[in-house]
Amino acid sequence: VQLVESGGGSVQAGGSLRLSCAVSGYTVSTVCMGWFRQNPGKDREGVAQIDSDGRTFVADSVKGRFTVSKDNSKNALVLEMNSLKPEDTAMYYCAVSHKYCEEGAGQGLYNYWGQGTQVTVSS
Description:
The chain is mainly β. It is built from no helices and eleven strands.
């Protein structure tokens, strides 16, 4: 199983980024997948999840600004991030779970992780 994130970078507040997570070893349409983020010294925070039936769960802190989806043609997980704020700065990770997604689920639900892509938002 391999998950590889891409699309991170540095943007100004109000800008947009599109993160992608290329997956091998799983068919993304059949599993729960999620995006998490983490800053040094802090816990890994759930950002958004999308289940095999298309249900999505998005953290309150990013609701209305971030959209999670799957690109089945590329077997990838996508996170569209708009109206970015400095507090969105973090390393962003994608993950795969063997179970169904659960609203508010933490990293313990997930079995495989990517290495992360850095997002930096300046004010």
